[in-house]
Design goal:
about 230 residues, alpha/beta, Elongation Factor Tu (Ef-tu), domain 3, Rossmann fold, 2 domains, about 20% helix, about 30% strand, globular
């Protein structure tokens, strides 16, 4: 059976941080997704694919990807100029169904480019903010210059408690007023209650395992901890 995929145009390509780019792609007819889902992307003629979470809201007219350019395929895609094309699959993974979060206290935990999985979700939650309880975002990066979506995060702070964390701060720590360490350290400080709560976790395999274990230690059941893959 012939594999189905879309060949789409790159609308914009901008450097977001020293290691990440934001790409906006043409949204093909029939492409649908929910917050937190991902897709596979690769340059035409290549057999190497990258896995990228969709950062754009489902209602937007384009597909937005926040790409960490560290891997070979990601680096190749980030180097493509506007007007060139990439191949993408349909949206994949369970994502984060918004209906499961109604009336809940919500904890979102991520690091690095994983913030892309929460961008569309937070925008959706803010549209009907009164339907949800307290919303907390725990977001870690290596240095202060590695935070993506800085302006958006400032906008979110009116309706979301944001805990931004750096694990490696070059220079004087007095220049950084946020948390230091890792997301696990901040989560231990928060000691979240499982009562009427949901936890959403996006990160490396090791980080997801450790954070999931922490939530379990706080009394969260398996159905209360969601991962987007």
């Amino acid at each position: 059976m012939k594999e189905e995929y879309f060949n789409v145009e790159i609308i914009s390509n901008q450097k977001e941080t020293r290691g990440m780019h934001i790409l906006r792609l043409e949204k093909p007819p029939g492409f649908n997704h929910i917050p937190g889902q991902f897709l596979l992307a690769w340059p035409p003629g290549s057999n190497h694919r990258g896995n990228f979470t969709i950062a754009s809201h489902p209602d937007e007219r384009h597909i937005e990807l926040l790409i960490n350019s560290g891997g070979h395929t990601a680096c190749t895609i980030c180097a493509l100029p506007v007007g060139s094309s990439v191949n993408i699959t349909a949206a994949q993974g369970p994502g984060f169904p918004v209906e499961k979060l109604t009336g809940k206290v919500i904890y979102m935990v991520t690091h690095g480019s994983g913030i892309s999985a929460f961008k569309a979700l937070i925008e959706e939650l803010r549209k009907k903010r009164n339907r949800y309880g307290q919303i907390r975002l725990v977001y870690g990066v290596r240095t202060p210059g590695d935070f993506a979506f800085k302006k958006l995060i400032r906008d979110w702070m009116g309706s979301v408690e944001v805990y931004d964390i750096v694990s490696k701060n070059p220079g004087d720590l007095k220049l950084w007023t946020g948390e230091t360490g890792h997301v696990q350290d901040v989560l231990r400080k928060l000691a979240p209650s499982p009562e009427n709560a949901m936890a959403l976790v996006v990160g490396s395999e090791k980080m997801e395992a450790e954070v999931t274990g922490l939530f379990e230690g706080f009394g969260f059941g398996p159905e209360q901890v969601l991962i987007n893959h």
